[in-house]
Amino acid sequence: MDLADPRKGVLVGRKSPYPAEFRNDAVALYRAAGGKRTYAVVAADVGVTGETLRSWVRQADEHAGRDHGRGEQRVESRDEEIARLRAENGRLRKAEKEWELEREILRRAAAYFAREVK
Question: pTM for the full model?
Answer without folding.
Answer: 0.47
